[in-house]
């Protein structure tokens, strides 16, 4: 039928798929709202003006739908949804507020905080009163897109997790200051796919980039008022649309094509793309937040509300709300989004922010919650890399080691143990041993493997590696919160001077500590994750919570001096060492027994004097100085799993003490000459042999706070 007011033809269309789907002739629009009484589709011109609204009269299984012939790619649109205004019962319908389609594949425009985008009169503080002022001029619009893309023979590199080295990076911050890119490509998807950047990643040796959030997100008003931005992007407003600010293209929906081209280019270089995703909450905040999408479409369905007072939101995330993954339709939204990014955008995996919040069926974290069950049986998602941040901020939210099969986890116990060891050596032998060998105490009991542990020393949240060894206190003054934000605790080493220094002894001590940390990370079992720029001494000037700093505080500085180049080369060579020695990235936990083809055990621990560790030392000892031998020759993995089978015997020696320690390697029948591969005291790495050797049975001195990797 033809709508009399607008002259637009509207056919019944279909409830599936949700969102705006162009078929070459017209576009089908479908929106879920269980409690709505009327839904209007509103169309806009390229400038976001000349609004024309038509009702979607068909409603099937709580999905409102209609088909409009002649409407195609580039069309801007949004929704107005009628229903009860009853905040105390959890309903906040307000047809005056234009709403973003949760399934929009691209968005145009940003929120104008001067627009009346709140469902109640802003300034009154009374969210029970409905504000009926129109706000379409200040709300982003969805864009109908043509999803076709010439993928050609693109395919995932499909790198085994135990062979992976993950590189966490920010799309903008990584290239915003890159000197080899033209200004228009800096800080964009296209910039990340540019030849100089791809070549750098390849030469570094990483196997996957983990992108900080690229789902469309908002800048909080309070940040904009202070001249800041939501730089990290953990403020999602749409789970399908790539963030437009990272696109060099100005075409309508061009961010979609540019993102796909980035993925295709990285895949061609053998690099996987993992997305950091935020399905635990949205940018609409608590009961005093704006009405931009989910809240106005069906608040009671999309959000976890306080059971006995649904005016308010359950907040497991510290952001004001929690997405209601218990609701089947919301769970479908999350799953549809994940599948879309795999099947249509070709990404290789996901890191889930505050993943424990998604597992809460009622209040307690349910390890076998619906979210995990659905992913486990999904033929698409069960095959990609799944990484959880295994905590949220509420009671019972810390779930490290408790995620199901198929999942890997950010292992903050690894981070804290390694930092503490290299600061003072005051961790127990058993704690250090567990972390170095894949954290079997956390992951082995439920059938998972060492690659369930995503090992890291630094990440986007906290100090950079350089700042970690240069500051004892956080310096977040630029955030405008009186330096009260960010983690108060820190395990760092300023070596007598806070911040930058010209003292060569302090500089040398800091560089050696950095070498200790990065070497430990890359020589441990599990999956190492590096934070972008750590390999070239990136600093944030002591800011350990740079979430709002979309500027040179956060952006990578590519101006490298000799010291930065030396550490870059050291990191590259370490990754090469890891790649050449499969014993350093085993797909199975050590068994502590002799392995096929070798008279030595797959793993053995020794005291500095060469004597095996005793039971008493395991239970009571401190790991200030310790030696770990990894048996090589013939690893017991089958060729069918694609694992490399042959390696050398390796010895890793740790001295976390403030003074040198005498070591003696235990002699055995297989040979007593060991060559030095990695020495963090000197910064030496010998990839192709080298002439420096150590003879078993003879004492030698390991310098203070240093690590040695030996190969036989």
Describe the 3D structure.
Helices cover 21% and strands 17% of the residues. The strands form six sheets. It has an eight-stranded parallel barrel. Strands 20, 21, 22, 24, 25, 26 and 28 form a seven-stranded antiparallel sheet that branches. Helix 9 packs across helix 10. It is an alpha/beta fold and 712 residues long. The chain is elongated and about 95 Å long. A hairpin with a 4-residue loop joins strand 24 and strand 25. The termini are far apart. It has two domains: 391 residues, TIM Barrel; 122 residues, Golgi alpha-mannosidase II (Immunoglobulin-like, Sandwich). It has 15 helices and 28 strands.
List keywords for this structure.
single chain, 712 residues, alpha/beta, TIM Barrel, Immunoglobulin-like, 2 domains, eight-stranded parallel beta barrel, seven-stranded antiparallel sheet, 15 helices, 28 strands, 21% helix, 17% strand
TL;DR?
The chain is α/β, with parallel strands linked by helices and 712 residues long. It has 15 helices and 28 strands.
Tell me, what is the CATH class of the largest domain?
Answer: Alpha Beta
Query: For the report, how would you describe the main beta sheet?
Result: 8 strands, parallel, barrel
Helical segment tally? 15
Strand order of the largest sheet: 12-13-14-15-16-17-18-19
Report the helical percentage: 10-25%
Average predicted local confidence, pLDDT: 92
Query: How many domains, in number, for the residues?
Result: 2
Strand content: 15-25%
Radius of gyration: 27 Å
Query: What's the β-strand tally?
Result: 28
Q: CATH H level of the largest domain: which superfamily?
A: Glycosidases
| Derived structural class | alpha/beta
CATH T-level fold name of the largest domain: TIM Barrel
Low-confidence stretches: 634-641
């Amino acid at each position: 039928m033809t709508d009399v007011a607008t002259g637009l033809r509207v056919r019944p269309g279909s409830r599936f798929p949700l969102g705006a789907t162009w078929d070459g002739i017209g576009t089908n629009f479908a929106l879920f709202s269980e409690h709505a009484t009327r839904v209007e589709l509103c169309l806009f011109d390229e400038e976001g003006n000349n609004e024309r609204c038509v009702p979607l009269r068909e409603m099937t299984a709580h999905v409102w739908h209609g088909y409009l012939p002649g409407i195609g790619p580039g069309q801007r649109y949004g929704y107005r949804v009628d229903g009860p205004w009853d905040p105390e019962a959890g309903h906040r319908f307000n047809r005056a507020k234009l709403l973003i389609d949760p399934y929009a594949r691209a968005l145009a425009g940003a929120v104008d905080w001067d627009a009346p985008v709140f469902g109640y009169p802003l300034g009154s503080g009374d969210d029970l009163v409905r504000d009926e002022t129109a706000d379409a001029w200040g709300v982003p619009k969805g864009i109908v897109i043509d999803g076709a893309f010439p993928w050609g023979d693109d395919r995932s590199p499909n790198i085994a997790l135990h062979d992976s080295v993950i590189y966490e990076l920010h799309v903008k911050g990584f290239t915003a200051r890159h000197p080899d890119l033209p200004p228009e490509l800096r800080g964009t998807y296209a910039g990340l796919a540019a030849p100089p950047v791809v070549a750098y990643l390849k030469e570094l040796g990483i196997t996957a980039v983990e992108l900080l959030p690229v789902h469309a997100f908002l800048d909080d008003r309070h940040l904009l008022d202070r001249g800041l931005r939501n730089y990290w992007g953990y403020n999602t407003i749409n789970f399908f649309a790539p963030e437009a600010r990272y696109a060099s293209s100005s075409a309508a929906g061009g961010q979609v094509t540019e993102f796909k081209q980035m993925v295709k280019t990285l895949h061609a270089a053998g690099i996987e793309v993992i997305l950091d995703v935020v399905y635990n909450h949205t940018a609409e905040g608590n009961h005093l937040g704006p009405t931009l999408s989910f809240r106005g479409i069906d608040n009671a369905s999309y959000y976890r509300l306080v059971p006995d007072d649904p005016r308010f939101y359950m907040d497991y995330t510290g952001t004001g709300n929690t997405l209601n993954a218990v609701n089947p339709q919301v769970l479908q939204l999350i799953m549809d989004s994940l599948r879309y990014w795999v099947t249509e955008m070709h990404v290789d995996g996901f890191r889930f922010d505050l993943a424990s919040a998604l597992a809460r069926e009622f209040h307690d974290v349910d390890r076998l919650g619906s979210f995990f069950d659905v992913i486990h049986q999904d033929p698409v998602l069960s095959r990609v890399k799944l990484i959880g941040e295994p905590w949220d901020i509420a009671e019972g939210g810390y779930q490290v080691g408790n995620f199901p099969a198929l999942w890997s986890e950010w292992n903050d116990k690894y981070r804290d143990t390694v930092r503490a060891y290299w600061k003072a050596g005051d961790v127990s032998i058993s704690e250090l041993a567990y972390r170095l060998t894949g954290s079997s105490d956390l992951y082995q009991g439920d059938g998972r493997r060492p690659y369930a542990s995503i090992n890291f020393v630094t990440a986007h949240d906290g100090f950079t590696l350089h700042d970690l060894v240069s500051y004892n206190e956080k310096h977040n003054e630029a955030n405008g919160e009186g330096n009260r934000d960010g983690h108060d605790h820190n395990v760092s080493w300023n070596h007598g001077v806070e911040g930058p220094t010209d003292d060569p002894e302090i500089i040398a001590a800091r560089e050696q500590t950095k070498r200790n940390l990065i070497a430990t990370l890359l020589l441990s079992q599990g999956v190492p994750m590096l934070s972008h720029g750590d390999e070239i001494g990136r600093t944030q000037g002591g800011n350990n919570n740079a979430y709002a700093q979309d500027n040179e505080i956060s952006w990578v500085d590519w101006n490298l001096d000799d010291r930065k180049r030396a550490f870059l080369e050291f990191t590259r060579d370490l990754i090469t060492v890891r790649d050449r020695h499969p014993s350093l990235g085993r797909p199975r936990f050590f068994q502590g027994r002799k392995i096929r083809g070798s008279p030595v055990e797959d793993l053995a621990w020794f005291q500095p004097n060469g004597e095996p560790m005793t039971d008493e030392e395991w239970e009571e000892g401190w790991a200030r100085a310790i030696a770990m031998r990894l048996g090589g020759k013939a690893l017991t993995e089958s060729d069918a799993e694609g694992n490399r089978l042959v390696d050398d015997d390796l010895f890793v020696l740790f001295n976390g003490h403030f003074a040198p320690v005498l070591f003696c390697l235990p002699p055995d029948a297989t040979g007593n000459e060991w060559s030095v591969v990695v020495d963090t005291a000197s910064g030496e790495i010998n990839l192709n042999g080298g002439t420096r050797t150590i003879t078993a049975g003879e004492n030698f001195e390991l310098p203070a706070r240093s690590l040695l990797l030996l190969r036989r």
